[in-house]
Amino acid sequence: MARRWSPGSRRWVLLTALVCVATGSAFAHEVRGTLAGADALTPSPRATPARWRGAFWEVPNGALPLSAPRANVERDVAIVLTGAGVAESRQPVTVPVEGGRCRPGTVLLSPGTTLTIDNRDLLGHEFYVVRQGADERVVPAELTAARTRRQVALPAAGTYELRDLRQPTFRCWLVAGPGQGRVLAADRAGAFAAALDDGSYTVKAYYEGVERGSAEVTVAGREATVTLPLGAAPGAPAAPAAAPADNNHHRRRDH
Amino acid sequence: MLFSRFWMVLLALVAGASVAAMTLARKTYDHDRATDVATMVDSDRRIVEEFLRRDARTRLDDISPVASDASLVALMVTATRRTADTPAAIGTAITTRLRELNQGLGPLRGEVLFAVDPRGVVVGRVGLQENEVGQYVGGLPLVERAIAGNVRDDIWEIAGTAYRMAARPVISEGRYYVGAVVHGMAIHARFVENVAQLVPGASVILFGATQTYGAYAPVPEAGAVPAPREGTLSDPLRTLTQRADWTAHGAASFDLPDNLGRASYGALPGSVGAGIAVGRGLPTMPADFLLRASKDDMGRVPLGPILGGVAALILVGFALFYWEYDSKKKKLIAAMRDLQKGPLNRVDPLLLDGFARDVAVAANDGIDEVVKREIERSGGKLRSVNDLESLLSIPGDAPGTPMNQRLPLNEADEQRQWREVYEQFVARRRECGEAADVTWERFSATLQKSRAEVVARARSRSARFSVVVKDGRAAVKAAPLG
C-alpha cells in the first residue's frame, strides 16, 4: 500500500527545499563572458579528394560574390572552464554531430576516455580518426547511421581529427590532454555564462584543436565578467588566402 | 601412289585445320565479344554518370524560380532578422510558400524542399518531417556551400531513401544572402528504369553503402543474352571496397561469377557513399551454333567460292588418282591381255611403272612357280625353271624341246630384243638388291660372245636370250634359235 504524505509533512519538505535553494544560491555566482575577436576566425582550408572535385556542380550563383567562409562561433569554438572544484565531465564524453558539424568543434577529454559520437544528423557518416597532420587512421572508418551512436577510444594523449569518409571536408578536433574541464556553450554572439562557487578559474577557448585564448576569472561573492580574446593559433602562419571559389566550375572526370 | 597418298594426308590436314579454325573462330569470337562488352559497360556507366550530372544541372536551373521568388525572399529576410533561435512563427509562413512553389515545379516537384537561413538553420520545410523547423544543417557540404553563394548538388540518404539534392542561395535585393533553398527528389525504381533506357540491353542499379536504391534489368529479346539480374549485380558490392581500383579511382569493372556477364561499378561521390552499376551479359557462340543458324545466316555463307574450292580439290584428287592408279592399271591390264594373246610368255615390267611394274614382276614370279609345280605334278621331266622359254613357247612340245625351230631375228629386231633383255636384266638386278652398274656396251658384248658359243655348240643360226632369277640372283639364259 502506497504511503501517503500528511499536509504537515508536505509543509516541512517544502520549507526544507526552499532553505536548501537559498543556501546554495548564496555560494554560487554567475560568471558572464564574451569571446572577443571571433570574427577573425577563419576555417582552415580542407583538401577535397581529387576525384570529388568534379563530382558535383558547385558553381557561384553569378549574381553576388561568394561569401567568405567564417567560423560558426556557437558551434566551432569550445570554451573550457578549469579550476578548483570544477568537476570533470561524466564518462564517456559525448560529442553530438548536428548538421555536419560537431558541437563544439573541439572536444577535450582525458586520455583513455571513451568518446561517444552521437550522430543527430539526417545523414549517416563514416567517421574515422587520424592524428592531426597525419593520414594514418588510428580509429578505422565505420558507418554511423543517422540517429545512432558510436563509441571510440583514442590510443594516447595528443590532438586528433575526427573525419568523415563521406564528407571529406568534415572536421572535428579531439584533444586528449590532462583533463577536459567543464565545457561551456557560447551563443552566436560569443557570449557564455556559468554559475560558479567563489574561487579562481581559468577559461580557455579552443578553435580547430588549438587553444586560441585564455583568461583568468575570480568569483568573490558576486557576479563576474570575463572577456576572452581570441588570437591566432600559436606558430600559425598568416591567414591563408581564400581558395578560388569557382575551382569546380568545370566538371572533370577522374575515372 | 605417292601423290595420292600425299593427297590423302593433305585432305586430312585440311579437315583437321577446318575443325581447328572453327574452334579458334569460336574462341576468338567469344574473346572479342567479352572485350566489346567490357568496353561497352564502361561506356554505359559513363553515360549514366553523365546523365546524372546533367540531371543535376537541370534541377539546379529549374529551382531558380523558387530561390528567386519575391514572396519567399521577403519571408527569408524576416527569418534572417529574427532574434529567436527557433523560427517558429515565420517557419509556418515559409513552409506554406515553399509548398506552393513546389507544386509549381510540376514534374520536378521535390519530395523534399526546405529553406535554411544564413546560419544553417531550417526555417521552412516541405516533405519529410514537414513543418519541422529549427534544425541545424549548415555544416552539411550541400547547405554550407549554398549558403556561401554556390549552386550545388549532392545525393543524400534519409530514412532509407536516396534523394537527388540541389541547393541554391537565396539573395535579397541583389546584395545579401538570406539563406538557401534545398530541393530533393527521391531515387526510386521508376527513375532507375528511366536511366536504364539510356543503355538499352543493360541492367542498372543505384546503390548506397548498405542497400540498393533502385534496380532495373531489361527483359531480353528472343535469343539475346540476358543482362545480369539485380542480385547478380549487387552481390559483389560486399567486396567492392577491397578492390584496389575501386579504392583508388572509385570505379571497377570485372566479369561476374559463373559467366553471368560483365559489370562496371562507379562511385557517386557524395554524402551517402552511393554508386551505380551497369551490367551486360556475355554473348558466347554455342557449340551447336550451326544448328541454330537461320536462313539469313546461311544466305550469308559464300557458297560459290566454297563449292568451287571443293570441286577443285576433287578434280585434283581425281587427276592424281588417274595418273598414279588408273592409267597404270590400264597398262597392266593391256600387258596381261598381250600375255594372254601371246606370243610373249611373260609380262615385260619395263613397259610398266609404278605399282603395275611391281604387279608384273610378282605375276612373272607367280607364273614361274605355277609352271614348276605343274611339271612336278605331271611327273614330266624336271627341267630348270630357267628353261621357261621352252616350256611356254610352243604348246604341245615335249619338255626340253629346244627353241631351234624358231626363225632367227634380223639385226634390228635382235638389237631391240637385246636392249629389252638388258633393261630387264638391270631391273631384275635392282629387284634382287644387286648393283645395276652393268653398261650396255659390256652387256651386248657378252651377249655376242654367248650367242657365238650357243651357235657353235647347238649348230643353230642364232640364239635367244631371256632374263631369269636363280637363287635370288638375276641371270641371262641363252637358247639356240633357228
Short overview:
Chain A is mostly beta strands and 255 residues long. Helix content of chain A is 11%, strand content 41%. In chain B, a hairpin with a 2-residue loop joins strand 3 (150-158) and strand 4 (161-172).
User: DSSP helix count of chain A?
Assistant: 3
Amount of beta strand of chain B: 15-25%
What order do the SSEs of chain A take from the amino end to the carboxyl end, as H and E? HEHEHEEEEEEEEEEEEEEE
The H/E string of chain B reads HHHHEEHEEEHEEHHEEEHHHHHHEE
Structural class of chain A: mainly beta
Helix content of chain A: 10-25%
Supply the number of structural domains of chain B.
3
Mean pLDDT over the residues of chain B: 86
What best-fitting shape of chain B do the alpha-carbon axes yield?
rod-shaped
Characterize the structure shown:
The complex is a heterodimer of chains A (255) and B (482). Chain A is mainly beta and 255 residues long. Chain A has a domain at 24-42 and 71-229: Cupredoxins -  blue copper proteins (Immunoglobulin-like, Sandwich). Chain A has 3 helices and 17 strands. Chain A has helices at residues 7-27, 50-53, 73-76, and strands at residues 28-36, 58-60, 77-83, 93-98, 101-102, 106-109, 114-119, 125-131, 137-144, 148-153, 158-164, 172-176, 182-184, 191-197, 199-207, 210-219, 224-229. In chain A, the strands form 4 sheets. Chain A has a 5-stranded mixed beta sheet with strand order 6-12-11-8-9, with no helix packed on it. In chain A, strand 8 and strand 9 form a beta hairpin. Mean pLDDT of chain A is 80; it is low at 19-26 and 237-255. Chain B is built from 14 helices and 12 strands. Chain B is rod-shaped. In chain B, strand 6 and strand 7 form a beta hairpin. Helices cover 48% and strands 18% of the residues of chain B. Chain B has 3 domains: 2-55 and 190-218 and 227-280, Beta-Lactamase (2-Layer Sandwich), CATH 3.30.450; 63-186, Beta-Lactamase (2-Layer Sandwich); 312-481, no CATH class. Chain B is an alpha+beta fold. The chains are: A mainly beta (255), B alpha+beta (482). The interface between A and B is large, with 40 and 49 residues.
